[in-house]
Q: What sequence folds into this?
């Protein structure tokens, strides 16, 4: 429940890791993180005390950095320890994934690729936000949206679905597709440089975008320690992100790393400009 007499008790939306609340400010919402950590499209779920605060701190630091760099985002400002103010947007239900290092599910789709080899140009992929179907890979070609299993090489036998762009909830017009790609790649570049200052390798990440009331595509949702793989010293054995939880590390160890990441992102907006 959010404080304030004008704010109802029911969230506008609730997902695995956050709640969206109405705001008394027109055109805005409040984005509250929860203490939940999940893996396997929600199949595993635990609570980590303090995760909501770490997530909010991380997301606020990241969005402040992106905004200074000129990336349009839905972020308006911090509200409380676990909540930030954002523009109300219509979410595009697509996970926009960018990669510098070949790792994770990318290797299942591209078994010929050497694990941990790097891409000269940031790699970009789109996945449907569809937990029930394990977030299929999306390819938009002409006026068709193709969906493929994300855990195997793309081919006729791994195609799950094909729809008209106009009729699919995952359909994007060419200009929109170009824009979300640009935003995802620029976001990766900015965060990669910020992490590099602390000798941390940004391996890969995902963002989600939304469309404002004015029709502008902006980076939305959150960018927190669930959103990326980060390797201090470029060493996967030192990973500090959600992969630790996927791999079954103790919750205390995971909590400790989330706290470290939240504090480290505080450096993103120190010094410089
Ligand atoms: N600025 C925003 N305006 C409206 N909805 C948003 C905004 N930012 C994020 N959301 C939505 O909030 C919901 C809850 O987030 P989350 O817990 O991550 O859900 P999920 O489990 O579906 O990933 C999602 O549907 C997400 O798209
Ligand atoms: Mg989410």
A:
């Amino acid at each position: 429940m959010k404080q304030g007499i004008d704010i109802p008790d029911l969230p506008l939306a609730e997902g695995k890791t956050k709640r969206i609340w109405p705001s008394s400010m027109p055109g805005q919402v409040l984005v509250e993180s929860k203490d939940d950590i999940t893996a396997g499209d929600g199949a595993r779920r635990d609570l980590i005390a303090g995760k909501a605060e770490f997530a909010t701190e991380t997301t606020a630091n990241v969005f402040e950095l992106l905004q200074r760099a000129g990336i349009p985002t839905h972020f308006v400002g911090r509200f409380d320890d676990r909540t930030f103010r954002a523009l109300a947007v219509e979410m595009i239900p697509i996970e926009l994934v960018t990669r510098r290092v070949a790792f994770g599910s990318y290797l299942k789709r591209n078994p010929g690729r050497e694990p941990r080899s790097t891409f000269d140009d940031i790699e970009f992929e789109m996945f449907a936000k569809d937990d029930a179907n394990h977030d299929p890979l999306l390819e938009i070609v002409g006026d068709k949206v193709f969906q493929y299993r994300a855990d195997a090489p793309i081919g006729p036998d791994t195609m799950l679905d094909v729809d008209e762009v106009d009729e699919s909830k995952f359909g994007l017009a060419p200009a929109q597709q170009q824009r979300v790609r640009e935003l995802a790649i620029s976001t990766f570049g900015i965060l990669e440089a910020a992490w590099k200052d602390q000798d941390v390798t940004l391996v890969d990440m995902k963002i989600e975008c939304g469309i404002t009331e004015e029709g502008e595509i902006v980076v939305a949702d959150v960018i927190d320690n669930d959103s990326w793989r980060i390797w201090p010293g470029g060493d996967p054995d030192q990973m500090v992100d959600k992969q630790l939880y996927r791999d079954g590390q103790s919750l205390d160890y995971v909590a400790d790393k989330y706290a470290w990441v939240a504090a480290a992102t505080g450096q993103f907006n120190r010094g410089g400009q």
Observations:
- Residues 13, 15-18, 20, 29, 31, 74, 86-89, 91, 208, 210, 220-221 surround adenosine-5'-diphosphate (ligand 1) (CB under 6 Å).
- The chain has a mean pLDDT of 95.
- DSSP finds five helices and 16 strands in the chain.
